[in-house]
Amino acid sequence: MGSLSALIKLFSRLLVKRSYTWQKNSLLRELGLWGVTKDALGHMKVQGLSTAKLAAEFGTPLLVVNQEKLNQDIQAMQKAMGTVPGAKILYSYKTNCIPGILQAIHAQEIGAEVISPYELWLAQRLKVPGEMIIYNGVNKTDESLVSAINYGILAINIDHLDEIERIVTIAKDLGVRAKVGVRLGLVDRSQFGLALDTGEAREACKRIYDAREYLDFTCVHFNVTSNAKTANTHKEYALKALDFVKDIQEMGLSTAYLDVGGGIGVPTSKNMTAIEYAQYRTFGVLPKPPNPSDFQPISSYLADISNTVVEYCRRNNMEVPRLIFEPGRHLTSRAEFLLCRVLTIKQKGNGTDFVITDAGRLSTTFPCDFEYHEVFVATKIDQKIRTKPYQVMGRICTSADWLVKNKYLPEIEEGDLIAIMDAGAYFSSYSSNFSFPRPAIVKISNGQTLLIRHEETYEHLIGMDSFE
Ligand SMILES: *Cc1c(COP(=O)(O)O)cnc(C)c1O
Prior knowledge:
Elements (H helix, E strand, L loop, with lengths): L1 H23 L12 E2 L5 E3 L2 E2 H8 L3 E5 H15 L6 E5 L6 H8 L4 E4 L2 H9 L7 E3 L6 H10 L3 E4 L3 H13 L3 E8 L8 E2 L4 H11 L4 E7 L10 H18 L7 E3 L10 E2 L2 H10 L14 H18 L6 E4 L3 H4 L3 E12 L5 E5 L13 E2 L2 E3 L12 E4 L8 E6 L9 E4 L6 H4 L9 E6 L2 E6 L4 H4 L7
Parallel strand pairs: 4-22, 5-6, 5-14, 6-7, 7-8, 8-9, 9-10, 9-11, 11-12, 12-14, 16-19
Antiparallel strand pairs: 1-2, 2-3, 4-15, 13-17, 15-16, 15-21, 18-21, 19-20, 22-23
The structure holds pyridoxal-5'-phosphate.
Pyridoxal-5'-phosphate (PLP) binds next to helix 12.
């Protein structure tokens, strides 16, 4: 056993060493990918503001939203949509549910895709028009259904047969017709949607048709992928969904919209494969960074989906449904990064260098668990990386609180700033107040800072408790 574990240790050390080469030659070093720059001191800058100044003014950890980049990514998608007549973009609230960010998104004529009663409430609170809201989710409360129907949202996507009767009852009570769609469960082993192969989805449509006095059928929906590099998966499932649309036409039900969900990737981040995940977990082998050129540009991505749909409909003599896209990551991921401070550096006898920061996986950077995220020393952008890797950690008292393992970075000193990129998707959503308050969020627009969320205070943390 002793020699086997020695062998495994040696093997893992070799794998980590090998990752030096791919880290050094990474194509993910171009700051422009995230719309940031650097100054003469080699500090990362956003819209002319130095990250060192931002950290000094707002403290760390700090989430920084770059509205210029956000607008760029939104406009690129809208431009791509120019070729897709009548399509809608509804931002997935769960991706980054911060009012100050959502407002900036809605200002660009993008609607809301919500999956919980709270998100539905927030979309209304932010005055998103009803025809720009879709309500998905595996469990919808009666109260939220009343609210959705009263507000006249574009579609409540039915995820379970029981929902139909509940919606019919509510619509009868309110004396209005509720707009509904169906979520197709196209992927095995997922808890979502209505299965095609068992006839469940068809049965749902039959019941919707029978209750057409109270239900207005508007949408066929699916959501099947995440962080996709190309449109292939979307195309494949769009065809399956269209087969279904054709099938239900025969029972007299037609849909105005085909909602192809979210899942469009970003070229700066990727999901780890199962093998990469296992190697990272077991041996600390940081996966290869994504190669940005592997990602299909958004213009051809959307055109591919649209052409697939148009061609299918032409072949089958069907009316072409309008498309709905529900991007989350693709719109906001790149426009935000997390800035944290190096608190201490600990050199262990076994040659391992631990960098203790004020951010970590258990509180602020959970997606780093299963996704590749680029990490920069924001105060040493120009410096060469060392030949020895760092273990970058958080400050919670558990060895699980790492931020990135075996990352080759420039020589780090106490007080340096570290930037974790692509924090605009799922960082805030997954963040927790495990031992520390959640960080502030600052938005930068036209070179001006705006604090869109204050750091939690200790009083906030106990604000909902009752005790003597
Ligand atoms: C999460 C989610 C999205 C957005 O996913 P991304 O991968 O961030 O684009 C869209 N639609 C639904 C139903 C979702 O649950």
